[in-house]
């Protein structure tokens, strides 16, 4: 049966790095494997983790069988001192409770959105230094070994909740092409539970303050209104998002960065 890999990297779409990484992967993985590439912002481990969680935790009927998620965002910020021989964060392999496998650089929040869904977590046999372009030179080989169930690939089993940090609450997690601001505020949040459709709220993101309307979906507000509503991400406990019908919530808030704090108050 054909296998499918979601590849998530912090390269711009169409960048030379993508071309080289894709070529290296296609040279290593078996012919029955399809690749699909998704870009996040440079060094953005929050968006990386958000995408990893959304893709890997999708219910069975909405994802291919034998799906693997490979995430590579390696800002090399785990150590502040100078690095020897281009060393960087290592790879971890996770088997989720739903059977999906995730291979990801252990950086920042790259695995934070799946930490409570991990059945097994392993360090793996992959070179961590010797190239400034590990994504091309080392990681495709690691991915190929994982696909082949190489007996020597998995090294040490870890406890996910001890190794992987929690994602930050009440921040921007991802900004889509429509300018919608997807947040880490879930439907189960106690403040969210007290909001009522049609209620006006005060919102501050960074230095920009705006008012928004609490909505139940993308199209039950007037054209041009800034709204706060359950988004399409987060599965059974959805993340809420800001959107502007017919416009861009990102532009309305001055194009904030992923990770920006969000403060919401009743009007």
What would you say this structure looks like, in words?
The protein is α/β, with parallel strands linked by helices. It folds into two domains: 3-163, Rossmann fold, CATH 3.40.50; 172-266, Elongation Factor Tu (Ef-tu), domain 3 (Beta Barrel). Helices cover 19% and strands 31% of the residues. It has seven helices and 14 strands. The chain has helices at residues 16-28, 45-56, 134-137, 139-147, 160-163, 190-193, 249-252; strands spanning 3-9, 33-39, 67-72, 91-96, 101-105, 118-124, 154-158, 172-175, 181-186, 200-205, 208-214, 226-230, 239-244, 262-266. Strands 2-1-3-5-4-6-7 form a seven-stranded mixed β-sheet, sandwiched between helices. It has a seven-stranded mixed β-sheet with strand order 8-9-13-12-11-10-14. Helix 1 (16-28) packs parallel to helix 4. Residues 77-87 have low confidence and may be disordered.
């Amino acid at each position: 049966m054909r296998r499918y890999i979601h590849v998530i990297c912090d390269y711009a779409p169409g960048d030379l790095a993508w071309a080289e990484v894709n070529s290296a992967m296609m040279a290593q993985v078996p012919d029955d494997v399809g690749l699909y590439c998704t870009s996040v912002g440079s060094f953005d481990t929050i968006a990386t983790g958000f995408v990893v969680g959304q893709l890997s935790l999708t219910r069975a009927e909405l994802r291919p069988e034998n799906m693997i998620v490979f995430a590579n965002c390696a800002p090399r910020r785990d150590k502040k001192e100078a690095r020897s021989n281009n060393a960087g964060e290592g790879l971890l392999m996770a088997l989720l409770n739903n059977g999906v496998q995730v291979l990801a650089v252990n950086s920042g929040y790259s695995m934070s959105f799946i930490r409570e869904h991990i059945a097994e977590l392993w360090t793996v046999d992959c070179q961590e230094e010797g190239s400034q372009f590990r994504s091309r030179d080392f990681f495709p080989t690691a991915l190929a070994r994982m696909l082949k169930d190489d007996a020597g690939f998995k090294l040490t089993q870890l406890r996910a909740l001890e190794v992987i940090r929690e994602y930050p609450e009440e921040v921007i997690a991802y900004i889509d092409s429509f300018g919608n601001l997807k947040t880490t505020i879930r439907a189960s949040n106690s403040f969210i539970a007290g909001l009522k459709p049609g209620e006006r709220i005060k919102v501050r993101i960074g230095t920009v303050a705006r008012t928004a309307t609490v909505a139940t979906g993308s199209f039950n507000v007037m054209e041009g209104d800034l709204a706060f509503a359950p988004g399409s991400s987060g599965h059974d406990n959805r993340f809420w998002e800001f959107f502007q019908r017919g416009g861009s919530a990102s532009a309305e808030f001055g194009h904030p960065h992923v990770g920006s704090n969000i403060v919401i108050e009743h009007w």
